[in-house]
């Protein structure tokens, strides 16, 4: 087999499988089984505690919060997330650090050597590579982010010790179903019977209790088994969980900053995994945690910029509440994939925007056209412009904006990634 660089491998994987999204566990399970047969020490014999996270929104911030807490307590932790912003390596981390090109290439070679005629998607290769790499380290805990849905996502070949469902809303309906109930059933598919299932959705769809009961999991619901309360100093966490092997009491702690609910889900998930936590370390780690591209604030060429991967109406609603109130203008640079509810997103966030610049995502075949996005901006009664690229839209607005203005970048990982690449080159 010829020696290939990581970039060469990624080019091959992007073009190999006929579909970008091909949900199902049969193919990836088959290859994972072959990989384990070849291992001198099967993965099942060295298995760390596994926490799997699904949800329409909030997966990445929940995992980032768990990782920060675990590192503060000196646990050895592996993290798998997707997609990435600047480098593919961001998807697989050990001890908070992205793994090397060499590690990923070696994992790809191992997968290729056993897959035979089984065709794998880009994401399935990515998932297996992460699991191979984690198996080569002595890890206490592995945190796995579901790519799409849950029940049929490649991540679900691994039986989690704790499952987390952060939120349930309409998104990816072509694959997950047209109702919140159907989508909930897919996301709950990551749970396992008699294992903790942490639920952050506070407005569950009709029939949700029956869906949870059907999983056989031990459900812990926000507001019932653990709580979040808000006051002038921030958000507070209180766990009401009792039981053998679980930390049954935990001090009321203050969680400051953005996305407090996802941080609180992180605390409860780790408590349910049997992790012994110190309140002071939890507080310090959570109040210092940040996550690239999720309500990320920075200054570029003297202009305040807010980056958020909000890509559905529910996420846009959260973004709207967190856009700073300023005396200047608020510009938006946005782009979405064609299967997204762009009109719904604009209806949620449009009231906070003065001008919207749109451009087609250049690196995904499912990208929405710039003209169709602009039409919906006009239909919402907003001032908008169509640009040749996300990069040119961002540079145009930065050149026009004053120090009193701000720029909000949102719509997809692809949109935020394009802008982050510009900013990183100027750093």
Brief summary of the model shown:
With 427 residues, this protein is an alpha/beta fold.
Secondary-structure topology with pairs:
Blueprint: H1 6-16, H2 26-38, E1 49-54, H3 59-72, E2 77-80, E3 92-94, E4 97-98, H4 101-115, H5 122-135, E5 141-145, E6 162-165, H6 173-176, H7 180-187, E7 196-199, H8 208-215, E8 218-221, E9 226-231, E10 234-239, E11 253-255, H9 260-272, H10 279-288, E12 296-300, E13 303-307, H11 313-322, E14 330-334, H12 342-349, E15 355-358, H13 370-379, E16 383-386, H14 390-400, E17 406-410, H15 413-426
Parallel strand pairs: 1-5, 1-6, 2-5, 6-7, 7-8, 13-17, 14-15, 14-17, 15-16
Antiparallel strand pairs: 2-3, 3-4, 9-10, 10-11, 12-13
Question: How would you characterize the overall build of this protein?
Answer:
This protein has 427 residues and is of the alpha/beta class. It has 2 domains: 6-288, UDP-N-acetylmuramoyl-L-alanine:D-glutamate ligase (3-Layer(aba) Sandwich); 296-426, Protein-Tyrosine Phosphatase, Chain A (Alpha-Beta Complex). Helix content is 38%, strand content 18%. It has 15 helices and 17 strands. It has helices at 6-16, 26-38, 59-72, 101-115, 122-135, 173-176, 180-187, 208-215, 260-272, 279-288, 313-322, 342-349, 370-379, 390-400, 413-426, and strands at 49-54, 77-80, 92-94, 97-98, 141-145, 162-165, 196-199, 218-221, 226-231, 234-239, 253-255, 296-300, 303-307, 330-334, 355-358, 383-386, 406-410. The strands form 3 sheets. The protein has an 8-stranded mixed β-sheet, sandwiched between helices. It has a 6-stranded mixed β-sheet with strand order 12-13-17-14-15-16. It has a 3-stranded antiparallel β-sheet with strand order 9-10-11. α2 (26-38) crosses α4 and α3 packs across α10. The longest helix is centred in the first third of the chain and has 15 residues, at 101-115. The two termini are 38 Å apart. Mean pLDDT is 88; it is low at 242-248.
